[in-house]
Amino acid sequence: MLKVTDTISIDDSELEESFVRSSGPGGQNVNKVSSAVQLRFDARHSPSLPNDVAIRLMKLAGKRLTKEGVIVIVAQEHRDQSRNRAEARERLFDLIRQAAVKPVPRRKTKVPKAAKRKRLDEKKHRGGIKSLRRGRPGFD
Question: Which terminal residue of the chain has fewer beta carbons within 10 Å of its beta carbon, N or C?
Fold first, then answer.
């Protein structure tokens, strides 16, 4: 079990990792070793995630989410496979941590009367200035 938050732990069997050749740094090694990691996590069918967290996670995943509800994270920044693997897992766990935080509902507020009054007074003032700019006959 991999601990993500205090209440959420993911079983290692829920993560599917495949290793592919990286396009990143590695010199001559890049053509021989599969150091990039594709981490797949089925968010829609995961028994470890509460339903509301899974829904928020799928929204947060954006373009990393497939039509089947699987999150795909590709890590290829590092030269060795183990560091890319750790980075992919950490990115997934960060996403889950963000999804675990319940959003605070927005409370509607009214515009204060003083603010409305100030806005209208300013409009009257600007209108008065503009009316003074109008050409009056005999003052040219």
Answer: C
Amino acid (one-letter) located at 96: I
Predicted confidence band of residue 86 (pLDDT cuts 50, 70, 90): confident
Q: What CATH number is attached to the domain comprising 53? A: 3.30.160.20
Asked if the structure places residue 111 within a domain, the reply is no
Please give the model's pTM, rounded to 2 decimal places. Answer: 0.63
Q: What is residue 4's predicted lDDT score, i.e. its pLDDT?
A: 66
- The mean pLDDT value for 108-126 works out to 95
CB 40 within 8 A of CB 15: yes
How many Å apart are CA 121 and CA 62, to the nearest integer? 46
In 8-79 the beta strands, taken as DSSP E runs, fall at 9-10, 15-20, 36-42, 70-75
Q: Does residue 31 form part of some domain?
A: yes
